[in-house]
Specification:
Shape: globular
Strand content: 5-15%
Radius of gyration: 20 Å
Structural class: alpha/beta
Distance between the termini: 28 Å
Largest sheet: 6 strands, mixed
Length: 291
């Protein structure tokens, strides 16, 4: 598939997904949202992809929603009066999907459901949806000059893209509230101090640092990595550790029968492992356990 707002480029089992509207600072549009959903769904089932790096073309990562479009800038249907009952019972109804559901949230849900690790290489301004979409990514790196802002309250709206779920889990509730209440645009070092970022690096080293992490991930079993990603996110939200124990038990059981055998043998033989299982065909029968 070709994209108008993105570049989808795979090399050495690493997908580089580049937001590609540099003349508009990669501002988010309805089209970009739909293309991101398709790209993450595609990558999830693409056996040539073992890790994903997301960055922006030009000097910005994503400067937030493109506010220059006509009508409702978020693409919502103002003729509707949706209720919580609609969200509970009609979430996948086409009218609700197209006219009510937050598109940024649909993007972060696609990232959450993806079975490949996702690394954000924040190369410049990441504001609004540009910041919140990275909350659903697993590791965040930023260039020294990058700026990150959860600016929703400043323009009279609320945080979106499921960030009220993701952000407190990353930085803690107090830090998350301060950032969204104040709507300040943070320097990269401030975001690092708040534990939102793994590292701040010189701009010319940003992608190589992201690829270095991605390469270390890509050498491992893609089935084990896919299971681990969903186990961490989903089990961490359970009310009791026994729920994690149930999933852990099945995951260890099935991986020990396949990729685990190769992993143990390669360790004993002091050689690199050769994992041949694919996420498209070799996930264990209990996956996805949450459905």
């Amino acid at each position: 598939m070709s994209y108008n707002t993105l570049r989808y480029e795979t090399a050495d089992c690493i997908l580089t997904l580049t937001l590609n509207r540099p003349e508009h600072l990669n501002a988010f549009t309805v089209e970009m949202g739909h293309e991101l959903i398709e790209a993450f769904n595609r990558a999830s089932s693409d056996d040539d992809v073992r890790a994903i790096v997301v960055t922006g073309q030009g000097k910005a990562f994503c400067a937030g929603m493109d506010l220059s479009v006509d009508g409702n800038v978020f693409g919502l249907n103002e003729a509707l009066t949706p209720t919580m009952e609609d969200m509970d019972k009609r979430l996948d109804d086409p009218e609700i999907v197209a006219g009510v559901r937050d598109l940024g949230g649909r993007v972060t849900l696609a990232i959450y459901d993806c079975n490949k690790p996702v690394i954000a290489a924040i190369n410049g301004a990441a504001v609004g949806i540009g910041a919140t979409m990275t909350c659903a990514m697993d590791i965040r790196l930023a260039a020294e000059h990058a700026r990150i802002g959860f600016v929703f309250n400043k323009i009279g709206i609320t945080p979106e893209a499921c960030s009220s779920w993701f952000l407190p889990r990353i930085v803690g509730i107090s830090q998350a509230l301060e950032w969204v209440y104040s709507a300040d645009v943070l320097k990269a070092e401030q975001a690092l101090a708040g534990k939102f970022l793994k590292a701040v690096v010189p701009a010319d080293q940003l992608l190589e640092e992201a690829y270095s992490i991605a390469r270390r991930i890509a050498q491992h079993s893609p089935v084990a990595i896919a299971l681990t990603r969903q186990m961490m996110y989903r089990n961490a939200a359970q009310p009791h550790p026994v729920e994690a124990h149930k999933v852990d038990s099945l995951a260890i059981f099935y991986t020990s029968l396949n990729s685990g055998k190769e992993g143990v043998q390669s360790f004993l033989e002091k050689r690199p492992a050769n994992f041949t299982q694919r996420t498209s065909t070799d996930m264990p029968p209990f996956y996805p356990w949450w459905e």
